[in-house]
Amino acid sequence: MLPLLLLIAAASARPRDTWPGDWRPTDPKAIAKVCRSYDRVEGELIIGPDYTAEDLRPLSCLVGVGRGLRVEGAPALRSLAGAEALRPPAGVPFVRLRVEGNPALVQIDALNAIPGLQIQTLHIKNNPALRQLQLGAELVSGGEVLITGNRSLQRIDGPMGLSTGARLRAIEVSANPDLVALTGFGRVIAVDRLTVAGNPTLAELSLLPDLRSGADLLLRGLPALRDFSFAPALEQAERLGVADLDALERLPAWPSLTRVGTLVISDNAALQRMDGVWSNRSGPPVVDRLIIEDNPALRPEATEGLARRLRTRPDAARVERNGGG
Prior knowledge:
Blueprint: H1 2-13, E1 17-19, H2 28-35, E2 38-41, E3 44-47, E4 64-65, E5 68-72, E6 94-100, E7 118-125, E8 132-134, E9 138-148, E10 155-158, E11 160-161, E12 166-174, E13 181-184, E14 188-197, E15 204-207, E16 213-220, E17 229-230, E18 236-243, E19 259-266, E20 286-293, H3 300-303, H4 306-309, E21 317-320
Parallel strand pairs: 1-2, 2-4, 3-5, 5-6, 6-7, 7-9, 8-10, 9-11, 9-12, 10-13, 12-14, 13-15, 14-16, 15-17, 16-18, 18-19, 19-20, 20-21
């Protein structure tokens, strides 16, 4: 009997293996069978339509995930409680964290319990019950953030870049109809494309405090936004657009701005002042192409001599259909 007990004990203490590739867990019985032999996933952990639990606690056998987490179309899932076990290898970011199309998912705060979590690509899409998004993870360079189509989402506090600064391909926050506040994304120093658009109830915007450069930066379709802080450290942009912000009366200051390839300020019903564009530390920025149009409250005195002040060639400036003109 003793040798048999020793054999059983040795078997239970035997190190478990790493599941090769991606794993799609389903029901408790299938999960338990995998957990007897494996405690890590080499690729992505994919929570999909066949996953039957309300949270991730049935996956507590895992001690690590290699490449990322996808939570897509899981009808029973209400939270990501239990996610703290899904840590990547030290210093290795999740290539992808994707949460999309989960009808009952209410909160994902448990992701903040994953120690030292770094993310390259973050997608949060079409989760109709999700009300708040606050991530303590760090964004690494080369990735993107997409937060769109979450109809009950009210507040977003975006994750920060690495302490050395992150350069991202894209950030898009769009089509979240109940969104009231959008803040965060500190230590992101450059982004190729930034779009904040189609969030009709957004009233608080304090975004990207450390951004220094961007290729295409657009704020559009935010009719409830009366004031905002956006990229106050911005130095240069290939294209900078502010459009359809009907409650906005004054553009914010960009005190470090030195150059803009194309500046577009259009269709802002209440806009009256633009001095934030040129009230900077080293004098007005150079603007290669200037489009200021269809701002009915913007009086001629606010735009008089603007192209000259911004050193825009006359044939590259279009200032028309504003108030009094």
